[in-house]
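Weekly modeling sync, notes
Attendees: S.R. (lead), two postdocs, one rotation student

Agenda item 3: backlog of single-chain predictions. S.R. asked that every request posted to the team notebook include the full sequence so nobody has to chase files. The rotation student volunteered to paste the first one in as an example of the format we agreed on. Action items at the bottom.

Example entry:
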Amino acid sequence: MADNNKELETVLNILKNWAFELNRCAGKNEDEAKSFWDRLSRDNAVLREFAYYYDNRDFLCELKIGRYTIADILVWQMDHFRAHMDRSDSANRYDKDKLLLSTFTALLDMHENPESIMKEFEEETGIDISAGWYTH
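Predicted structure, as returned to the notebook:
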């Protein structure tokens, strides 16, 4: 039992260090990194997604909130990043760390408060049209 606890502690420290490094690479400060880790470490489902991404550099997509997984959130985040690319501020153009961090943060937000975040998710497309997603 003690060996299992030691192994879990080691894994959590690795994930914590990576969470702090991801925040640093995304331009966040130490307090923001701590806040992110505190939220992440309290949410086992999102932490599992985060750990899977760390190990595989791919999304597990096991956690579903409504009909959405982290892959859906990533696509939504990419639409917002593309909208930023169309503006004069192109600093976000190749910021994969910031995109990944914002995707996991949005998953935490959605898991904590699904109704309001899903509403935002469905209404804000990141593209300049007034009626939501463009469909033919």
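Discussion: group reviewed the output briefly. Residues 127-136 have pLDDT under 50 and may be disordered.
Action items: rotation student to repeat for the remaining queue; S.R. to check formatting next week.
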